[in-house]
Amino acid sequence: MDDGEYAIITNDGYITRNIRDGRPVQKKIMLIDWDAEMSRKGGFPHYMLKEIYEQSETVKKAMAIGDDGIKSLAKGMIKANRAYVTGIGTTFYAAQIGQYYFASEAALSVPAVSSDEFLENFPLTKDDFVLAVSQSGETYDTLRLVREAKARKAKTAAIVNVVGSTLSRLVDQAVMQGSGPEISVISTKAAVAQMIALIRVSLEAGVLTGNLTNSAKRQKVAQLNSLPALISDFLNEYSGLFHTIAEKHATSHNWLFMGRGRYYPIALETALKVKEVAYLHAEGMPAGFLKHGALALVDDNLKSMMFVPTEAEKELFRMTMSSVEEIKARGGKLIAFHFSKSLRGSKLFDDQVLLPACPPLVSPIIALLAGQLFSYFLATTLGRNVDKPRSLAKSVTVA
């Protein structure tokens, strides 16, 4: 509904009225291609696990988003005096992933800003471009930001999952990510679709800025197209391992999740998931922060988890392993999710998962799925209400 309207829903139908005078308002009916089967658990114990397993198809759908929409977003960013990407909660972490890819693939500085803090930090003008990311398209803080951006004549766009949502109708351009309904309160597949869409925009922007050749872009798109099969194999082969490792560490109540570069938002999102579904104290931070205070926390009561980059990311890998050594030098308990066969059996880790080999372009997505599985199995081991965590709602529509 638009502002200034309300709906009355009965068993026989609905009617939309104007808030001021109560007069009926005629609304255009929009059919959404979601069927009841898509909302069933399909044999999974929880919707959250079902939706984690749907991410192979989710990536295929994100790769099927029309090139015209992706290219338009890329052009909007390049033409703008200043471009921003925004979201809140999980969608902010998706936006942060986008920020790193815009830098690496397109040599563009596109700050990711949490929508609840945006207006207090960045005065917008008509020459600016704001790309909002949202699952529901009804998030209060993001809508507030976009309305203000439009009032200041800035260009606006959105990557959003729900057809006909307020955000999709409010922005100048909406790209529908097509993830399908997400029943669990906890967002998993929608966030992955948003990340893939943002990576695609970064690749298009890279060609436009001259940072990527068309040939290099095609190679990277091929890597993205290989991701669904990789995800499917990963989920089928690794779920039992994550179940085992989560059961082993479920009695730990204080967690520190860390990563560097593109793995930093993955650490933040995993910490959020552990808070949301397992109700454990979890903090995400860049691994470089360790020497600036966080090392004081390292003791027997704190469990640390490090997302280690691929060895192909040479400097990032080296610096991350330096942070690992800092923790171990102080007797810290450390779990690592990594991609390196050379680290298998390393005494630097109290526990570890060797993730499947993959190109650096897509390795953060595999690391994210590892964090999703780990948080899910932590929660089920502890007997939490996985699909409907306490005090949380699917769509946050109030301040």
Please tell me what the overall shape is.
globular
Give the CATH level 1 class of the largest domain. Alpha Beta
Q: How many domain modules? A: 2
Strand order of the largest sheet: 4-3-5-6-7
Name of the CATH homologous superfamily of the largest domain: Glucose-6-phosphate isomerase like protein, domain 1
Biggest sheet overview: 5 strands, parallel
Residue fraction in strands: 15-25%
Q: What is the helix content?
A: 40-55%
**Low-confidence runs:** none
How many DSSP-defined strands? Answer: 12
Please tally the helical runs, counting DSSP H or I stretches of 4 or more residues: 12
- For this structure, the CATH topology of the largest domain is Rossmann fold
| Radius of gyration, in angstroms, nearest whole number | 21 Å
Structural class by SSE content: alpha/beta
Mean pLDDT figure: 92
Distance between the termini: 19 Å
In N-to-C order, the SSE pattern is EEHHHEHEEHEHEHHHEHEEHEEH
CATH architecture designation of the largest domain? 3-Layer(aba) Sandwich
